[in-house]
Prior knowledge:
Elements: H1 3-17, E1 19-21, H2 22-29, H3 33-45, E2 49-52, E3 55-58, H4 66-72, H5 76-87, E4 95-98, H6 102-111, E5 120-123, H7 126-132, E6 139-142, E7 146-148, E8 153-155, H8 160-165, E9 170-174, E10 177-178, E11 182-185, H9 188-198, E12 203-207, E13 219-223, E14 228-231, H10 240-250, E15 253-254
Parallel strand pairs: 4-5, 4-9, 5-6, 9-12, 12-14, 14-15
Antiparallel strand pairs: 1-3, 2-3, 7-8, 10-11, 11-13
Amino acid sequence: MLLEERKNKIMNLLKVNGKVTSKELSEQLHVSEVTIRSDLKRLEAEQLLKRVHGGAIRMKPELFDPRFQEQIAVDKEEKREIGKKAVSFVDKNDVIFVDAGSSTLFFVEELVKAPPLNITVVTNSLYVINEIVQYGDIRLIVLGGMFYKKSLNFLDLDMSPLLTKYNVNRIFLGVNGLDEKGIYSTSNIEARINKELYSTNAEIFILASSSKFFKRSLILINEWQGREKIITSDQNKNENERLNILKQEKSLEIF
Length: 255
């Protein structure tokens, strides 16, 4: 394979995956790892990628790519575990609302691997839209509104009628913090919309990694109602005692 052909294939793989390894490229392109390292060095000199140990990453990840949100997320391993747990609560024929955020994105990434039959995802998150639109086995409904570039979602203060219209039966929310009082957001408008979500009869699942526990953010979304299910990681051991107290006092379920 000629050099230019290899370079094009490397860049296409980077565009899709965000990163590549020398070993994988060597196997796919049928050349030695020495040749691949030389190719990566040339591409880095052209400022098309950045070499890292064992391979390379995309030089400028695209803001609207779900993988960019995954790359910058904190508590990644916890969030992957949370995502896998959350998928177990999705059943055949469910209509679920998925909020914006890195925790819910990890959840969606797990969901698309083996989605239950006839499920519908309702969302206002550009990241979630971009992830799910690639898969034909999931029905996708997008809620409109003003696009907020900071959070990359569409926000409309009058979402409740739409959620009722689509018979959403489960809601998966990411939060910026939670404590003994309730759950928090950094955005006033997002908090108001999430509060509207509480006005539905849907089951509410809070996806929260350890960095969100017993931390207050700018706006209180809602006080605990005793209907919430908190999905967290088994890797988090530091707050188990406080979580158990919260569970008992507020009649919450914690998984």
